[in-house]
Structure formats: structure tokens, C-alpha cells
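Support reply, case 0932

Customer input (verbatim):
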Amino acid sequence: MTEDFSGEYTTLIETPISVWKAIAVGEISGTEAMAKHMYSVSGDFEVMMNWDNYFGSGKSESSTSNSPAAKESKTNMLLLLLPWMFFWIFPAIDSEWGTILSLAVCLIEPLIFYKSKKTLYDLISCAAAGCCSVGVIMGLPIGIVQPVSYFAFGFMWAITCLMKIPLTAYYSMNDYGGNKALENSLFVTTNRILTAVWGIMYILSSVWSYFLMKTALSPYIGLINSILPMLIGIFTVWFQKWYPKAVAAGKIK
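Our regenerated output:
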């Protein structure tokens, strides 16, 4: 039986009825079926991103607003980046006071972001940036420590691509249903690609930072190295919307 529809559709899902029934009875998840290209989606992809809101358990928002999950604190990417940002910018300008400021940020950051949900990578970043600051205070050359810090930060991102959940997923999940997003294979794959891009960028940053630290541009190394992340950030915003939509439409196998 078919029903005529007049006008333009918002979202079009093309799938065999057998796949639709399998999803409906829970034999396969909708995201898993999409990842396996068992159906395709064209049009407004926001419908798919909010699928559970439309076809969920039927619980109203008010019935879950007092649940522990509803009150759960969120991760914060700034918590991850802040210790490194201070270490990359200020010690290159003034080795002594800049490094003291960097170390101070590492010490007080837990107080500033005490309501945020911490990840392992937040703790590693705070400890590693603090160790770098201590190293400079103890006399290690800033021209060596800073490039090493870029490499360490990039390696931390890159190595998580080999893990079940890549680093960026723990932060972008806030916009896609929280921890539930980590069960979405397409979401995880999207973030695995982005995590690799960011990791490679920071590892490469360690190379040119090493040489720039030997030039008159060394006081501006932090500002110089902020240009590429801004461009990668623009790419990230575009990619995290384009890639899932392209997979859903069958454009990427």
C-alpha cells in the first residue's frame, strides 16, 4: 500500500522493508545498518541525528529531567587545551614569568573547572604541561621543551585513534546525546578521522616549532602555531556534519 505525498520531502530514507523491520524489532541498530550501507538518507540529516527524540521510548523530557543522567556534568575541551595554551604562548615571551604563569594555570585549573566532567586526557594534559613548566624552571632549554610538548600533545591525540573511543569523541558527544553517542559507530568513526587529523597536525607542529625557536620569531611561536588550529577547527565543524551525511547518502562506502 502506498500513500501519495504532495510537496517536497524534508528527509528521504530509502531502505528495503526487511531492513526497516529488523531495525524496528531491535535486531540491528539504525546507526549500524547505516554504517553497513543497508539504507541511505538524503535531505535534512538532522532528523537522523535526533532519531531517538522522535522514535524513542516515549518518555517525556519532564519525566527524565530529574534523572542522574540529565544532571550529569559535561566535558569541556577548554579544560584539555588551557594548560598547553599557556605553556605554548607565555614562556616563549618570557621564560621565567611565562613559565611560572603556565605552572600556576595547571595548579588552579581544577578549581576553575570543578563542575566540568573530567576525562583521562584532561588529567594527562594538566600533568604534562605542568611537568614541561617545571622542566623549564629547572633549566631545560625552552627551545627543546616546547617542540617536545607539541609532539607529546599530538601523540596523545594520535594514539587514541587505535583505541575503541578516540579523544575528540569524549568532547563532541555533548552535542549528540552524551555517552549514548559513544555507542554510535558512525559518530565514533567521524571522530576517529578528526582525532587523527588533529594529532598529525600537532606532531608536525613540533617539527617546525623546533626550527622557529632558533629564529627571531621564537617569542611569537604560540601565536604562529594558533593559525593552523583555527583552520583545522573550521574544517572540523564542516567535516563532522558532512561526513555522516555523505555516509548516510551512500556517497562514501
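We compared this against your earlier run and they match. Two observations from our side: The longest strand covers residues 11-14. Strands lie at 11-14, 40-43. Please reopen the case if you see a mismatch on your end.
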